[in-house]
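Title: [Solved] Riboflavin biosynthesis protein RibD 3D structure

Original question kept below for reference.
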Amino acid sequence: MNELYMRRALELAALGRGHVSPNPMVGCVIVHDATERIIGEGWHQRYGEAHAERNAIASVRPDDLPLLPESTAYVTLEPCSHFGKQPPCADLLVEKRIGRVICCNDDPFPLVAGTGFAKLRAANIPVGVGLLADEGRQLNARFFTAVEKKRPYLILKWAETADGFIGAEGGRPAQISGALAQRLVHRWRAEEDAIMVGTNTARADNPRLNVRLWAGGRNPTRIVFDRNLLLPPNLHLFDGSQPTLVLYNETYPAPADAPNLNYIPIQSTSVAAFNQSIGQLHARRIQSILVEGGTTLLNAFIDSGLWDEMRVFRAPKLLGAGVKAPTVRGQIISRERIGDDELSIYKPLRQTL
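Solution (posted by the thread starter after getting help):
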């Protein structure tokens, strides 16, 4: 039964996707041990608001509150132990005299890092950790990547034709994927902190990079490489409608920032600039980036081995000639039909979260 309750906690945690970053997604299920009855559920719903444990305890009916010392809290991540935007969840569990706590994963964030479990154990609350640990790490892959690898979680996405092209001749844009795939991509945008494109894509496609096809979604931060500051100011990227970062060659005079528009200098050499830019974005607490093109930028990530996931749509269309799609280098994780398109998900051959 332990796995059943923890899977429910993981389901709850996932409801916070796209709303809690840079915090992790966390779910909590409180079960009365003797009757195996769920008496409380909660998840971290929005950054800055109550955490999962606090929401779960708040959901317990007054008549069931005396049962907390005889109950187990199934939590997907180690309860926090420090004051941030919310008070420590470990303190709350101690205050409510919860009977036992079981978690998927310990929290590597330096202000927690075992101290949440230590508080519980000091209060003689039994603690178990490691239940469905792989599922917990996958759920919070972005959080673990940011804390442990000091960089954003990187998702490469593109659509290609059946004959392997990502764009028309001369770099002209071509509509490749279908309507369902496009809507799915807008949902993905709402789930990630940022979306990135290269100079050529910004100029040729003039993308908005928003979530207009996914109602209620949060627009990501837009990131564009413009090393030589040649992009025209009338592009949608510079309309001030959502936060936008421009990475440019540090040898140029610094352009003036504007509302929702900031310029970030990077080194001039390509390899150094690439690595430095990722570090700059991590420093801005960007936990995940959806890289949407073009081919030059996607290939730069692939060649460097600096990516965590590929999402590739293959459409039943032929262009005959044009811009070649990147070459996949990874292991396939899943494949499914999205309308007339085929979506394949890949991970690196040696995936280390």
